[in-house]
Amino acid sequence: MRSLLVLQSLAVLAASQSTTLSDIPADANRTPDALPLDFLRDVPAPTYSTTEGVLSQDVPYATATAIAAASAEQIATPLSVFPAVTTVPINAAGEAASAASPTTAPGRRDVEQNLRKRTACEVYPTVDNFYSIDTTGGPENFKADATISSIASAATAPAGYFENFKNLGGASSAYGYLGYTVVEKYEPEVCAAKCTEKDGCLAFNIFFERDPTMEPGTGCEDPDPLVVVKCTFWGSALDKTTATNDGQWRADFHVVIAGSNGYTSDAIAAPIDGWNEPLELNDATMSAPLRDCAGTWTYMGYKLFNDGPYDVNLCAAACDAQNEYNIAHPPTNGDNLALCAAFGSYQLTQNTKSGSKVLGQFCTMYTSAFDAQYAVNKISYDDSIGASYTYSLSYFYSRDDRQPICSTDLASLVSSGAEFCTSYISYTPSATTTIRSTTTPAVSTVYSTSTTQGTTTVFTATVTTTVTAAVAKRDIDARTAGSIETPALVTGWPASRISAACSKVATGSATTTSIVTAVRPLTTSFATVTSYSTVQAVSTATSTAPAAPNLYTNAGFENGLSAWTYTSGSGNAGSVSNDVHHNGAASFAFQKKGVATEQYGGISQSFALKKGQKYTWSFWANHVDPNPNAYCYVYWQGILGEGWWTGGKVITIVGASGGWNRYSGDLTMDWDAKGMFVSVTYCYRGDTTNPGTFYMDDLYIAEKA
Hints:
Blueprint (H helix, E strand, L loop, with lengths): L4 E3 L1 H8 L20 H4 L6 E2 L7 E3 L4 H14 L4 E2 L2 E5 L20 E2 L27 H5 L2 H9 L6 E8 L8 E7 L4 H10 L5 E10 L12 E10 L13 E3 L2 E13 L13 E4 L16 E7 L6 H17 L13 E11 L2 E12 L12 E4 L4 E12 L8 H10 L1 H7 L5 E7 L39 H4 L15 H8 L5 E8 L2 E6 L6 E6 L29 E4 L5 E4 L9 E5 L8 E10 L4 E11 L6 E11 L2 E2 L4 E6 L5 E8 L4 E12 L8 E11 L2
Helix pairs in contact: 1-8, 3-7, 8-9, 9-11
């Protein structure tokens, strides 16, 4: 047997050079990551209302819920075409005719609490005047009070916060309002502790306020004043420009503010697991090159958040979810898979003659990292509405393991690293086995003396066997064991990036040749003669390898919840159903709620899942809902420990089909897990009057070679 390994390096090199950086269509958008002014004209600014006459107001916000919602929304409405050339798809969704439709503008976010309206002269809660501030001299004396000024000027920034402004006559009116509380003393550290404990809080403002002792109105238009110390909480940074609230008139009573100090948390752009330390771009945003080093269009698009605090984790979640969608729905035209490898996050402010307003948090997604030299956008103008746009809190995050493989890097590996790559990924070439024949004289036996005509037939057949290349996930030292030197080019690269590059270099096939001999009887045209020939022949048979064993026990719920654990995260019911099932006599039913769009419930089993191992999974689902447009997300999550699981490893969208459908795919575990948790969450458009039911049956997960 002979084996010949043919590396198709020249083909790889040609492919990597098929798109050059100068290959820019004439109609391409040369500044795709500039502000989308048409879109912004329809974006309302978030508003908020404060509740007066109470000791505190809380505007709830849940970071984990917001991150999960950002991920789910990105998968439901992914970026689908490159803004530079909208005819080039990012994923399969971009191949539809309507794919280039712009992002819809979010609705106005009004933060209000519907408390009962106070009646005129209703007495407010009593607050001690701890510092004995004089209240008899009127509003102007209050604003100029020396005691207030001294206390505010002497205050220092609490640990974990930095000072934005000190002793101003106005309170902050900023982005991401999270409520307020009245405190006894002017102690920034007390406000800081409350902010740190509060989900989404990134800054606080502490100040003295001259308030009425009762609700101003008919019969008490100008009541006696009282002094309160307030802390207001915000989901974005503060500065002097936010201190615009200098009070208000309520009937004939003038509310005024003094001694206003602002502080912002050091964690406003904290490190994110898996991402590099961000570039601090301050008041500038990226104007990146049109293509990355692999020739892919760089800018993928944007996402606007304006219904909560500023949080860079929302951008990271959207970026990750975009990749999940791209991987699950690659373009069918054979283009390289585009991954979100970096994102920008900044706060956008619109400025007009009537004033300035924060529109929200912008997230911009890119296929490659870039350095700060490309952060040149500092202001944009929309003359059609007389507006300018400025940026703040601008940061740029990137991941090393998602960076594109540059054409020059591939060329270098092709020329000097092919042997290393073959060893690194334990490449096994696809094998072609060909059965060949050689013609030999047939052996004929004649049983009569009559003249006969002999016929010799040679039968030949070719059988091709394909062996899929196997890539083993091992440490770099094990992969490169032996005398093969690691190319300097890849030193310091993450393992995933080396694997991605080497998979494009270590390609080829091996050919083997063998001879098969068989004996077959021959017949002639004369009945009196029978000939036998030795011929070359082969027969083929196809058999299906048995499926790998299912790691699930009681996968069809025939034994109730035996081996299963059901978890209800938001109160929705789940149970085994014997009325609706796929196979057998049972299934599991998630009962949807009628008062909310978000569900959360899951079933799990305990078994070992290995880091780096590839698994194949499947399940049958029957989503029953009166609204045919209803849909739910199904998450497969590897359990990290007892009662804990990580984010969705696989996310599947299941519509309301009214019948059983099978869903399947593969996943690779990025961690060692103690089991699998399958949840049904984020159900949308369901009938709230007659909520539906989500059935699952015949779950399957097994190791894949």
